[in-house]
Specification:
The chain is an all-alpha fold. The chain has a domain of 46 residues. It has 2 helices and no strands. Helix 1 runs antiparallel to helix 2. The mean pLDDT is 86.
């Protein structure tokens, strides 16, 4: 009796790579930098008692720009 060959288990897909071999492209790093800038500026304004613009910048940085930097291809 011949044994049937088993198919190897499929490996998890690696992250999508760009032309230069990195998972993130230039656009992702630029968006990440803009998000960090918004967050730092928000904390700076918060330390100077800005109660209107600082929270807007912090929410934009944490909830919009940083996730966008991760998701955008």
């Amino acid at each position: 009796m011949a044994k049937a060959k088993k198919k190897p288990a499929k490996a998890a897909r690696p992250a999508a790579r760009t032309e230069d071999g990195l998972a993130f492209g230039r656009r992702n790093y630029i968006l990440f930098g803009v998000g960090i800038f918004f967050i730092l500026l928000g904390y700076l304004l918060l330390s100077r008692n800005s109660i209107t613009l600082a929270p807007i910048l912090l929410v934009a940085g944490y909830c919009v720009i940083l996730p966008l930097a991760i998701v955008v291809k």
